[in-house]
Design goal:
Elements (H helix, E strand, L loop, with lengths): L1 H18 L1 E3 L14 E7 L1 E2 L11 E2 L2 H20 L4 E8 L6 H14 L4 E6 L6 H7 L5 E7 L3 H6 L3 H4 L2 H10 L6 E8 L6 H14 L3 E6 L4 H10 L8 H12 L4 E2 L4 E3 L16 E4 L4 E4 L2 E5 L3 H9 L5 E5 L4 H14 L2 E3 H8 L3 H4 L1 H9 L3 E4 L3 E4 L1 H27 L3 H4 L8 H5 L4
Helix pairs in contact: 1-16, 2-3, 2-11, 7-8, 8-10
Bound molecules: S-adenosylmethionine and iron/sulfur cluster.
Iron/sulfur cluster (SF4) binds next to loops.
């Protein structure tokens, strides 16, 4: 698709610019804006298995290290509270936040004690979801997101998930039996994996409908350069030319029982919470190793090193070690354009009130492009909404923005101390773990 190629070519250097960071020693976060409510993101970077495609900051689970990490995470939450921020929502992401459920409960309880949290989202994996987990998290987590990725055994094996998280049949049973356990249950899927065929994708979407879950997010495979290289050697090339066709298949299969609630999330209930919290909370503060904050037009990234993270928290300091450049007014307008449209609607009057210029003038090139390719559905005095093509183009924009962050994580991983790099392997040497003085 020409529009996808053109957009990817424009977005790649832009995403590099927007995610470019410089190291800092003792970073300060800006003071909160009075009256504003932010989202608190807490990162739990541990998994029982490291999936081949996964680009998040995650390490192989070790109980002692993870227990100490959770305690530090709570300490960092207290440091954030001391800055005067007010948080309306908490998102606990990973990794696998439910890996130590008692620790997760203590962490959510502390957030509720410190802030007026209205809703909590968390992530889990298929081997942990079930009635027991739901009972522990009742009254604590409103929205649970679980990674399935695919029901195809071929793909699950290639993703290194079959053995740990179960076959397609088993995953289908797990998700079907989890229906109704949480106020909202989101199932993560991945499309455009190198060996995935149209038939596999249709099969995935159909089985997903049968599970009875009330929300699903279909992520396009987002491979950093390093992952794309590894995937093409082991499985096959990531082929972007199929992505739009695949998106249309997902949309055809899901529309009806589901309705798009963001460019890549489909929900049964209108106005449900979605994974991409930047739609509802363009500004957020991240705690935990590798977490990011976006505050006052600047991106902040916390240390990826678990040892450094612990040392900073014990010294009563923030854990930010990299700071991005200050977004200009134009950058902020673009950020608003992408986040609002990713949530399927841009309010033109709010844009004018916030930036002092109509969106058509402030972002003439972006608006003209979307009009020329038939991306807008409603385009009146009030708002822009999206056609299916428009939604797909927002997937492309978000894919490129997140791929920029993946690149950053690749670089951070390469710079980790040797002992910590051992936890990036599925079978690290015991001696290497013993060396970790965290
Ligand atoms: C941080 S994971 C948490 C879920 C949980 N750990 C699990 O895997 O079951 C959130 C989701 O991100 C998605 N994801 C991870 N790496 C990705 C990549 N490179 N491209 C696209 N989606 C990805 C997967 O769908 C995954 O379920
Ligand atoms: S996809 Fe989930 S389980 Fe797999 S490595 Fe990433 S965070 Fe961990």
């Amino acid at each position: 698709m020409f529009a996808e190629r053109a957009l990817t070519a424009v977005m790649r250097p832009l995403s590099r610019r927007y995610t470019a960071h410089g190291p800092v020693d003792d970073a300060q976060l800006p003071a909160p804006t009075p009256g504003k409510t932010y989202l608190l993101y807490a990162h739990v970077p541990f998994c029982e298995r490291l999936c081949t495609y996964c680009s998040f900051n995650r390490f192989l689970f070790n109980e002692d290290i993870a227990t100490r990490y959770f305690a530090d995470l709570r300490e960092e939450m207290r440091i954030a509270a001391g800055l005067g921020y007010r948080f309306g929502s908490l998102y606990v992401g990973g990794g696998t936040p439910t890996i130590l459920v008692d620790e997760l409960c203590k962490t959510i309880d502390l957030a509720r004690e410190l802030f007026h949290i209205r809703e909590v989202s968390a992530e889990t994996s298929p081997n942990q979801i079930g009635p027991e987990l739901a009972a522990r998290l009742e009254g604590r987590v409103d929205r649970m997101s679980v990674g399935v990725q695919s029901f195809s055994d071929v793909l699950l094996r290639q993703m290194d998930r079959h053995e740990k998280y179960g076959s397609g049949r088993e995953l289908f049973e797990i998700i079907s039996n989890s229906r109704g356990l949480f106020h909202s249950l989101n199932v993560d899927m991945i499309f455009n994996f190198p060996s995935q065929t149209e038939q596999m994708l249709r099969h995935d979407a159909r089985l997903l409908k049968e599970t009875g879950c009330n929300q699903t997010t279909f992520y396009p495979l987002m491979a950093s350069p390093e992952q794309a290289r590894a995937l093409s050697q082991q499985i096959g090339r990531v082929d972007m030319t199929r992505e739009k066709e695949f998106y249309d298949i997902i949309d055809d299969e899901l529309t009806g029982p589901f309705e798009a609630s963001s460019a890549w999330t489909f929900s049964k209930e209108k106005g449900g919470m979605i994974d991409e919290y930047i739609v509802d909370y363009p500004e957020y503060l991240g705690i935990g190793s590798g977490a990011q904050s976006f505050l006052d037009g600047r991106l902040y990234t916390n240390t990826f090193s678990l040892t450094d993270y612990a040392e900073r928290v014990h010294a009563g300091k923030l854990t930010v070690t990299q700071v991005g450049h200050q977004y200009s007014q134009r950058d902020m307008m673009r950020y608003r354009f992408v986040t609002d449209l990713f949530g399927l609607r841009l309010d033109k009057r709010r844009f004018l009130a916030d930036f002092g210029t109509p969106v058509e003038r402030g972002l003439w090139g972006e608006v003209s492009f979307m009009r020329a390719v038939g991306g807008f559905d409603r385009d009146d005095d009030e708002c822009f909404t999206l056609t299916r093509t428009g939604r797909y183009l927002l997937v492309v924009m978000m894919r490129e923005m997140l791929t920029g962050s993946n690149r950053l994580r690749d670089e951070a991983r390469a710079a980790l101390p040797a002992a910590e790099r051992a936890l990036l392997l599925d079978e690290p040497a015991a001696a290497a773990i013993a060396d970790l003085a965290i």
